[in-house]
Amino acid sequence: MSQPNGTSRPVVQLRKIHKSFGANHVLKGIDLTVGQGQHVVIFGPSGSGKSTLLRTANLLETPDSGSVWFEGKEYGAGIEGEDLPRGKARLLRQQIGMVFQQFNLFPHITALDNVALALRRVKRIKRDEAEHKAATYLDRVGLLDKLGAFPSQLSGGQQQRVAIARSLVMEPKVMLFDEPTSALDPELVGEVLAVMRDLAESGMTMVVVTHEMGFAREAGDLNIFMDEGVVVETGGRELYDHAREPRTRAFLQAIL
Amino acid sequence: MNPFLVIPVLAQARFRPEFIWENRDVFLGGVRLTVFIAIVAFALATVLGLGVALLRMSKNRLVAPIMAAYINIFRAIPLLVFVVFVYYGIAIQFDVRISAIQAGILVLTLQYSAWLGEIFRGGIQAVSDGQTQAALSVGMSRPQTFFRVVLPQAIRIVIPPTGNMFIGMIKDSSLVFIIGVPELFRVSSVMANRTFRYFEVYLGAVIFYLILTTAAYFGVKYLEKRFALVDVLTTRVRSPLARRRGVRLRMIQEAVASERESKSSGTATAL
Ligand SMILES: Nc1ncnc2c1ncn2[C@@H]1O[C@H](COP(=O)(O)OP(=O)(O)OP(=O)(O)O)[C@@H](O)[C@H]1O
Ligand SMILES: [Mg+2]
Fold first, then answer.
1. DSSP A73
2. Both ends of chain B: CA-CA distance in Å?
3. Among the four A181, B74, B185, B206, which has the fewest Cβ within 10 Å?
């Protein structure tokens, strides 16, 4: 699990990302490079722009300016002065998985169909094969017995595991997690973190917004503290005990 | 000549309930046309209403206000005035050849497309933004996201209010009597004026309208149940389709479980 910081080949690179909602300047020039197999943890106060940043990485949110580089291609608005060809957002999203705080499972279809839907409609895999593959991924998150259940019949922890399977089944090169355990009852947090640990150990490249400090300390190769739309401080595992910036230290103290 | 004097005299006729049964064919003729008008106008209004809802939500600065005006105008005109205006006003002024039935269906369709448009828009907007984000995040296109994720959820949300609108349509279709469409109310009033059996005739009309609206009510209940979500693996299901689905899911389950077994025993022997 311990990928040395910065030595691996870059997979995603965010460059000079700016985003405003009306007069609210939410992201103020973010740069971030994520290496192959690296596990990036982002933390910071509410409203600092963490979710917006993650959504920008797969262009669910279009940056006002700045570029998303992914596996040799440029996406998004771009940087002034540069004139590089831009890729299609949909192509980017097919290769980047995302897990949401509120799970966002499709409530009108079964757990199996939640996982199989994109296989069939995006990858155009035949129904039999898609459902078999979907079931394999549900098994991987320990939910083979819940194939036929609808999201409303599952606990929060189970829903989030289905959501993880739904992303993983597309075989993404990077997985983004936006506070995947914050909406869960405390006793359900563990089962989701266990799946994420397995995934980290399997070598998946991950960017995780979380305030689960146990998980962050253990999995985070690159740890980023964000506040008010800027990266305040970046560090390896030592960051949690030896932060240089007073703002980082104050935040860490407050949440521990 | 005080017209109010006439009615008490007529009302003295003895109540003959069998009169309704004897004239059932006249009533049923009206029922048939009422059902036809209601279903055709409602089907057209549903399609048009979906278009209205989508255009109303458009980000285009011209389209959205035009659709808002469409909705407000067609909702605001009293149906009775609207149907007379179209059939006697517009049709004659501009020499449009249109039958009374067509005019009635047109007016009902326009008004109901405005109401349904607002219901559909509400249903679509009630589906959370997170659903769209999740669908896009697995690489689905915008149209796929709309038709496979948003719309099916919106349909469930709008079934009850849309069902109420259909019941309203059955009742409102009686207003086209004014331009001579021989639907249930029209044939009833013609019969009443001819036979002077006002009580029996209108009682018959009331009964037939009640039967129609009650049938529609149970139809809506049935749809709600059909669209309800049932786990075919843990619930005893009766429909053959659901049963077959259950068998299928169990087969997939077993296949994946046995693959997992054989894989883990494979690594065990390798160790
Ligand atoms: N779609 C949107 N429209 C308008 N404003 C938005 C939108 N999304 C986010 N914002 C604003 O952007 C700012 C950053 O929000 P964001 O959700 O990225 O913060 P966050 O760091 O994820 O916070 P939290 O820890 O509460 O999830 C907030 O002020 C928020 O109100
Ligand atoms: Mg957030």
1. E
2. 111
3. B206
Chain A residue with Cα closest to B153: A108
Beta bridge partners of A86: A74
How far apart CA A43 and CA A41 sit, in angstroms, is: 7
Q: State which amino acid sits at residue B85.
A: F
Of B260, B100, B230, give the one whose Cα is nearest residue A139: B260
* pLDDT for res A3: 44
Nearest ligand 1 atom to alpha carbon A55? 18
Backbone phi, then psi, for A251, in 5-degree steps?
-65, -45
C-alpha pair distances (Å), A156 with each of A142, A167, A181, B230: 14, 17, 9, 19
H-helix segments, chain B: 6-10, 18-22, 24-56, 63-76, 79-84, 91-93, 100-126, 129-137, 142-144, 151-172, 184-195, 198-226, 240-270
- In angstroms, what is the C-alpha Rg of chain B? 27
Report whether A173 contacts A11 (CB < 8 A): yes
Reported pTM: 0.85
The answer to whether A191 and A217 are in contact (CB under 8 A) is no
* CA diameter of chain B: 111
Length of chain A: 256
CB A112 within 8 A of CB A166: no
- In this complex, do B234 and A147 lie within 8 Å of one another by their Cβ atoms? no
Q: What is the ipTM of this complex?
A: 0.93
pLDDT on residue B18:
87
Inter-chain contacts counted by CB atoms under 8 A, chains A and B: 100
A contacts of B256 (beta carbons < 8 Å): 132, 135-136, 139, 144
CA A252 from chain center: how many Å?
21
- Rounded CA gap, B166 and B37, in Å? 11
- Residue A155 backbone class (left: φ over 0; alpha: ψ -120 to 50; beta: rest): beta
